[in-house]
Amino acid sequence: MKIKYYLLQKEENTKARYGTIETKYGVYETPMFMPVGTRATVKGLTPEQVKEAGAGICLSNTYHLWLRPGEDIVAHAGGLHQFMNYHGPILTDSGGFQVFSLAKNKQKDITEEGVHFKSHIDGKSLFLTPEKSIEIQNKLDSDIAMSFDECPPASASYEYLKNSIERTLRWAKRGKKVHCNSNQALFGIVQGGPYEDLRKYSAVETVKMDFDGYSIGGVANDGESKEDMYKAIDYSIPYLPEDKVRYLMGVGEPIDIIEGVIRGVDIFDCVLPTRIARHGQAFTRDGKINLHNAKYVKDLTSIDSECDCYTCKHYTRSYLRHLITTGEMLGGTLLSIHNIRFLIKLTEELRVAIKNNQVLEYREKFISRYVKKDI
Amino acid sequence: MKIKYYLLQKEENTKARYGTIETKYGVYETPMFMPVGTRATVKGLTPEQVKEAGAGICLSNTYHLWLRPGEDIVAHAGGLHQFMNYHGPILTDSGGFQVFSLAKNKQKDITEEGVHFKSHIDGKSLFLTPEKSIEIQNKLDSDIAMSFDECPPASASYEYLKNSIERTLRWAKRGKKVHCNSNQALFGIVQGGPYEDLRKYSAVETVKMDFDGYSIGGVANDGESKEDMYKAIDYSIPYLPEDKVRYLMGVGEPIDIIEGVIRGVDIFDCVLPTRIARHGQAFTRDGKINLHNAKYVKDLTSIDSECDCYTCKHYTRSYLRHLITTGEMLGGTLLSIHNIRFLIKLTEELRVAIKNNQVLEYREKFISRYVKKDI
Q1: Cα–Cα distance between A98 and B269 in angstroms, integer?
Q2: CB contact under 8 A, A315 and B85
Q3: Percentage of residues in chain A having pLDDT higher than 70
Q4: Most-buried pick from A129, A369, B37, B146 (CB within 10 A)?
Q5: Domains of chain B: which residue ranges?
Q6: How many Cβ atoms from other residues are within 10 Å of residue A12's Cβ?
Q7: SS3 string of A167-232?
Q8: Does A45 touch chain B (CB under 8 A)?
Q9: How far is A39 from chain B (nearest CA, A)?
Q10: Contact, B371 vs B255, CB < 8 A?
Q11: B4-270 to CATH, choices 3.40.630.30, 3.10.20.30, 3.90.1170.20, 3.20.20.105
C-alpha cells in the first residue's frame, strides 16, 4: 500500500497542523522528525535503538546506496527494509542534493538530460537523470520516493533559479512518468529560492502533476539565512494542497523545526543530531552542550534532566565525556540516541501544542531557554 | 560480598571442570568467556547488548582507566559499575600487561619498587607500583582485582624469568598487604614462561599467600607459541587449589579456549572478538571469515547459521559487508556482538560437554570443522 496522509487538526493561531500518515507498518503522527540513515544505517544505531527513540519514518540516501552497495544488491536482499532490518516506513531522497553538494570538487555538468559528475569516493564519472533516480528508488523499494530536482546554491541569482525551476518541473514530469512502484509514494519538490513568485510558480506547477506529497527544497544549503528559509516556506505552503503531507528537507535545528511547524510543515529530516553527536555535542533544553568541555568531567547529571531517552536514563555527562574524549564508538552512539530523541520529543510536544492551540506559547517558552542561556 | 567459586563437576577424561561463581549480581557458570571493556566500555556495545550476548563477568583495564578518566573520577561516580552502567560482575586487570606492552616505545625501567614508563597517550612519565595498582582497583571498585605482576616477553631467558617470578611474588605480597576493599576479590598471578620448575615454584608460592583466585599469566605475549601456552597451563594447574577459580589471561582463540578448558581453566578474556570485528572479521564454525571479501556481496545468509546472536538473527553477510566496506560504525558493533556471542556460546557448549564427559569428543568435532575448512 501507498502511504496516506490525514489532516486531523489545524491550530487556530498559526498554520501548524496535526495529522497522521498511514503506512503498511502502522500509523504515525505528524509533525514528525525523521532520522537519517544515509547508507542504510542510522550511524551507530541498531533499528531497535532508532525505534526506541520514537522514530517513525526513517530516511536513506539514494545517491549513497546507488554508489555502494548498488541498488541491485539492495533489491537482491528484498529491498531496503529487509536489507537494513528496518521494519518501519522509509523515505529515500532523489540523490539530487548529494549530486550538487558531494560531487568531487563540486564540479558537475547540468544538461537537460541529467547531471554528469564525478563520484566523491573514487572520482568515477557518473550520470544521474530523473528517470535513473526513480529507477533506483523503485529498486530500493522505499515507501516514499522523491523527484529528482536541481538544488541550486544559496547564491544562485533570480534568473538562474527561474530557469532551474522550469528544468526541475520537466524533470519531475519525467520521473513521474517512469515511476512504476505501486507501493511507493512519489513526492514533488518545490524550489525557487527566497522569491515569492518563483516559489508560487514552482508550487502551483508541481501540484498540477498531482504527487502523493510535496516537499520544500533548497532550504538547507550552505550559506542560506534563516530568513530566506522561512520565506521559502511561507511562499510555498499556500499553494500546497491541505490533504497532502508537506516535507521540509534537510532541516533539523530545533528552532527551525518549530518555525517550520508554525508555517504548516509536517515532516523534517536532518543529519544534524547524529553528526553533532559524533563530535561530542548534545541538545539540551538550554541549548547545545559539548561533552569535550572539561567542566563535565565530574558531572553526574544526565545530558538533559527533562529527557526520557535511553542515554539520559542510564548515563552521566561524566561518563559520556570520557567516551567522547577517548574516541570510544559508544559515545557517538549514546549521544546520537539522545539527539534523535530530543528532536522527536520536540515534535511530540508540538503535536500536543497544536491540539491545545498553544504553538506560539510553546515557541516562546522553548526559545526563552534554548537561545538565551549560555552553557 | 566477595565472589565465591564452587566446583560442581570434574570431567572424567580431562582436567576440565564445571562450576559456578557466586557474585552479588547473581550466579554465573564456568567455563566462561569474559568480554573486554578496556576503557569502561566494550567497544561499540551497550551493556544490554553485552548481556544479551550471554556475558557474565566483564573485564576492564586498570591502566587505561588510571590514565583516562582517572580512578578518582570513576570513584566519584560510585565505582565502575555505576560509571559504565554495567550491573554485572567486573574484573579489573592490574595494569601490568599494559605497562609492559603499551608503554611508549616499549621503554620501561623496572625497579624493585615498581615500573617507570611513559604514557602511550602523551609520553608523560608514570610510575606504577603493586600498591598503586591495588589502590586504583580499590577505587574502581571492581568485583575482582588482579595482583600487579611483571609480564616478561616470550623471548625472556630462563635466568631472567627466575628473577622475574621472585619479584612478582614480592609484588603480589605487597599488593595483598594494601588491599582493603572487602567486597573485592584479589587474584594472584602465576608466571614462569614455559618452564615446569618455574611455573611450579611460582604457583606454589603464590598459592601460599591464599588469594581468592589464581590466574595464569604470560601466555598471551607476542611471539609465544601455542605449545608454550599449553605448557604454561599444564605446569601451573596441578599446583592451584581446586576450590578456587582459575583464569587464563588474554586468551580468546576458540581452539585455545577449548585447550584451556581441557587443562582445567575456568575463565578467559580477550580483546580478539571485538578487535577483529572492527576489522571486518567474524568467527564461524568453519573458521574466521572476512566480510571485506567480495564473495559476500550478495550473500543473504547470516554469518553463522548455527549462531543465535542478535546479528545472526537479523542481518545478512551482504548487509554486514556493506557496513564494513563503507566504514559504518554499526558494522563493528554487529560483528562484535556476534564474535562475543560465538565465544560465550563455545563455553556454554563446553559446560554441557563437561557434564556429559565428552570434552574430547567436543574438541575433535570442533577442530575438524574449524581448522580444516578454508573459507
Answers
A1: 45
A2: yes
A3: 99
A4: B146
A5: 4-270, 277-370
A6: 12
A7: HHHHHHHHHHHHCCCCCCEEEEEECCCCCHHHHHHHHHHHHHCCCCEEEECCCCCCCCCHHHHHHH
A8: yes
A9: 8
A10: yes
A11: 3.20.20.105
**Distance between CA atoms of residues A275 and A339, nearest Å:** 10
Q: Do A329 and B333 touch (CB under 8 A)?
A: yes
Cβ neighbors of B233 (< 8 A, separation 6 or more) are B216, B219, B248, B259, B260, B263, B264, B265
For residue A330, give the nearest of B41, B73, B314 by CB distance.
B41
Residues of chain A positioned with their CB less than 8 A from the CB of B40: 319, 322
Q: How far apart are CA B266 and CA B104, in angstroms?
A: 33
The contacts of residue B349 (CB under 8 Å, 6+ apart) are B362
Q: Residue A237 gets which letter from DSSP?
A: G
Q: Chain A closest CA to B325's CA: distance in Å? A: 9
**pLDDT digit string, tens, across residues A277-305:** 999 999 999 999 999 999 999 999 999 99
d(CA A307, CA A339): 10
How many angstroms separate the CA atoms of A155 and B247, rounded? 66
Place of cell 497544536: A354
HEC readout, A54-120 = CCCCEEECHHHHHHCCCHHHHHHCCCHHHHHCCCCCEEECCCHHHHHHHCHHHCEEECCCCEEEECC
**pLDDT tens digits, B203-236:** 999 999 999 999 999 988 777 899 999 999 999 9
| Matching residue, cell 538550554 | A286
Residue B297 CB: number of other CB atoms within 10 A? Answer: 15
- Under a CB-based contact definition with an 8 Å cutoff, are residues B171 and B191 in contact? no
A188 HSE (CA, 13 A, CB side) = 28
Collect all residues of chain A within an 8 Å Cβ-Cβ radius of residue B45: 330
pTM score, two decimals?
0.97
Q: How many CB atoms lie within 10 A of CB B94?
A: 32
Q: Do B328 and A43 touch (CB under 8 A)?
A: yes
